[in-house]
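Hi, here's the filled form for the chain we discussed.

Project: internal
Contact: R.S.
Residues: 146
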Amino acid sequence: MPDYQVKFQSFLQDRGLKLTRSRKLILDAAFALHEHFDAETLHDRIKDLNVSLATVYRTLPLMVDAGLIQLAIRSNGRDRFEHIWGHPRHVHWICENCKAVYETDLDLLTPQLELAAKAQKFKINKISISISGLCWKCRNNANESQ
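And the returned structure, exactly as it came back:
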């Protein structure tokens, strides 16, 4: 059993819940994706296995609370998630034009953020950085049309 399944099963047991077949399929589908996903995208991957969209919507908050996934961004009116268990912290670069999301490692910024937090006597629980602008493709397209 993969470590993310062990963690989720333990989380659920602590709350008197079970790792049902549907929850396991949803969890495995989320960890098989190496990109941001919404509930509908996740459901599309497993709907042929008799998992309802409602079950996906009910399971995502449990996975967030377990520390396995996080809400990455809200795009086009949909919450998009990413798995974070065993995944390095990173910055999201969001193109305002094409809505593409790029990621870079947060390790270079972390020491400065921790230093600033110490100066503010602030305890960091979570770091989430999203930067919006234009990606290189959209910038090139804008330059070509001028």
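Let me know if anything looks off before we file it.
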